[in-house]
Design a protein that fits this description.
Strand content: 25-35%
Radius of gyration: 17 Å
Distance between the termini: 30 Å
Structural class: alpha/beta
Helix content: 25-40%
Strand order of the largest sheet: 1-2-3-5-4-6-7-8-9
Length: 240
Amino acid sequence: MWTAIPRALAACAATLLWGCGDTGPSGPAVQRELEWFQLSWPGGVTDVGLVRPDAGTLAPHPVLLALPWGAGTPDLVYSFIDAYWAVEPPSRGYYVVSPAITGSSLAQVGGDFIPALLDWIEGNLDADPDRVALVGASNGGRGIFHAALVAPERFAAMVGLPGSYTGVGSNLAPLSGMPVWLLVGELDTSWVESTAATAGALRELGIEVRVDTVPGQGHVMFLNPVDLMIWLDEAIGHQP
């Protein structure tokens, strides 16, 4: 079941957090709506937010599966998308799909939830099943690892903002060949440590991982979404 939320996503997401660049003489970017659907899966029913790719972008469309920070409530889905994913991904032809779920809970329920969500995406959206990327922050940054380990063959790349794995490092072996980018704020001390530990575990398994410590920033980072999307495009082999 679909409903449109009563507010549109910002024409330039989180304008106060970063510069959006010159929009040119045509004026500000078109607003994007966040739609909701309810996903039934063996553990219950979960609200999932969706931003559609802009009209005129080529199908089949790549997908960002965005796992929100904190408790993963619908409001946090909205804020996570608005912070990074409201403008650049749809303009480049991506669907943004963001479930209202606590990312760390996927360690327990991911085996049921993730396949159900991916099957829904492939069955109901004009999506490219070979170009699905995981992005997540904080609890969602833990969740990207749990999600990827459920079905590594169904994901093309992952980005943590920040992100870390809390399990045994050797469990990450199925992620071999998957591009991974982990960003963490310089002032976010505990996450700097857990990010380094996760990167070390990946590298011990021969998995290449990019790690960036963002100077002067804390747990919630102010980042340029264009830079994030340039990396994601290259990682999944997408040309907008």
